[in-house]
Amino acid sequence: MKSLKSTLALGVAATLLSAPAVSAPTTFVHLFEWNWSDVANECETFLGPNGYAAVQVSPPNEHIQGDQWWTRYQPVSYQIQSRGGSEAEFVDMISRCNAQGVEIYVDAVINHMAAGSGTGVAGNSYGNKQYSVYGPQDFHDTCTINPEDYGNDRWRVQNCELVGLPDLNTSATYVQDTLAGYLNYLTNLGVAGFRFDASKHMSVSDIQGVLSKVNGSPLVFQEVIDQGGEAVSAAEYTGTGLVTEFKYSTQLGNTFRNGQLSWLSSFGEAWGFLPSYQAVVFVDNHDNQRGHGGAGNVITFEDGRLYDLANVFMLAWPYGYPKVMSSYDFHGDTDAGGPSVPVHNNGTLECYGSNWKCEHRWSYIAGGVDFRNNVNDNWNVTDWWDNGNNQIAFGRGSAGHVAINKEDYTMNVALGTQMTAGVYCNVLKGELSQDGSSCSGETITVNGDGSINTNLAAWDAFAIHQNSKITTTGGNEDWQRTVIFIQAETASGQDMFIRGGIDHDYANNNLGRNCQTTNFECAMPITHNNLRNVTTAPWKSNEFYLDWYGAESAQDSYAEGTAMDWTTDVWPSSWGAVKTVAVDGYGEEPLNLWGQHYWMLDVQMDCSKAVNGWFEVKAFVKNGQGWESDITQSGAPYSSNNHFAQCGKINKFDFNGNSAEISDF
């Protein structure tokens, strides 16, 4: 009973998606107690533009009168009139949300009807098991579900009354026909899916009977609270749709609140959960955030940053179909209904304060949804790392990488990833500009070897994905491996640096680049492939350009430019244990065909910034020879006193020498 869109969202068909992925919705949100006008506005102003797949809305049918949230879960009739609004407003909401690519899932209460007697919000009367569509004959005999029944008495759980609510005889043909008629009416209005409330209190065969009469293939997920050891298990319901995995919520909460994040490396089926493709998961929901419905160590909006981090993990981790909770502040009153003011209040957004909480708009949560949407083509965890306690990081192959630090100190570690080199927008804290050239917030650099030099603050996180990479040339960059060797005999304590790029006057007069105003217009964007040399790696950290200006703003001040590494073609045995560039970052290097003292730069370089593939370099030996003298290189693309190297090639020069040897890899 799943649509193709929802199947893809679950990752079941993730391997069918092309790479790199086009962002596809993967996450839905429960706008708890929102009215239909607010939901429609939210679809247009936030949910659609930010890639949410669907909205779970509160029950839309007539219910008992009262301000408490749970009055919505006591049906009086199936007339579409409720605290959320009229049928006309409901239809308008569906149309406006669908136009934004956001589907509507209805919370369907089909196990029972309202208790007591009175008049519903649409004017229909009820009482003594008598309703406009049902009579006493349509209900099970009155009996009470006792607390102990959940552990040992299936019959009472599924045939007696949940908290005194008249229990429909869902095995009866008339009842099934009536329920299917209600669901079909909603699907005809454009509803795409249903949450079946209190599914544990109906047998699987009864639900199957109802669904056999429902037209089309709406997404169905069933509320089955099962923490283990119950007479009725969640696994029984997987044949009739998706199932809420409450163990996920409590175990995630327990781990984030009381345990170690390092435990989470196997989170999912190995923890006794349902298979991923059958599970709907959440950090919290409207019941357990109030201490009901299988609550335990559940994390909620009241936990602040802890809630952020738990949601980041849920949205980054490849398990289940995630639901984001969007709450209101109930100020300790677990019966309280929604705030008296609308969310979209005459141009004022009543979020984040003492009314609506709007967690789905929180930067870390909306950013987590963006991350999930863009990594769904790789449904695997790669490159797991942890510190044995509360710092973790993991990848989704080359599609994305995430790190979470729930320690009270900074996370400083070199993380291995499968991401391509470049600068990425941390989508938890910022957004990529429309042209992809900048990020509104924090950026994360992936080095040429795929590593990230992480400097993550306490109680913080980052997430980058394949479509959050910053493009410095409007998407036309051309990153290629580029190697430069410069021979200069040096002594211990001497280090070689180079500077380079494009001559300012040439660029200004011939390329239309204003390098006086923006120095980096004449620089060559780079990321280092070799960060294994413990001496030079700190000088390369936070360096993004081969330029004419020495150390960049966040680069080590010792750097006179871009650091190079000493290499040789052969490591003499008299020198002791062999050192290699591949392992140690210096020493023997297969690309060095010439001998000792060939200092090497190995980078990924954006060749789109070169002049027909050419750029300039000049070397400096610190604590030694200083700068090279003027160079006159034959075949140069324009007049200069520097070496000319070719981007994407192996370039060999001699210090103070005019010759050049350039070859392909």
UniProtKB/TrEMBL annotation:
Keyword Metal-binding: yes
Domain of life: Bacteria
Ranges of residues in domain Glycosyl hydrolase family 13 catalytic: 26-372
Enzyme class name: hydrolase
Cofactor(s) in the UniProt record: Ca(2+)
SUPFAM superfamilies assigned: (Trans)glycosidases (SSF51445), Glycosyl hydrolase domain (SSF51011)
Enzyme Commission designation: 3.2.1.1
Leader peptide range in chain numbering: 1-23
Family designation: Belongs to the glycosyl hydrolase 13 family.
Protein name per the record: Alpha-amylase
Species for this entry: Planctobacterium marinum
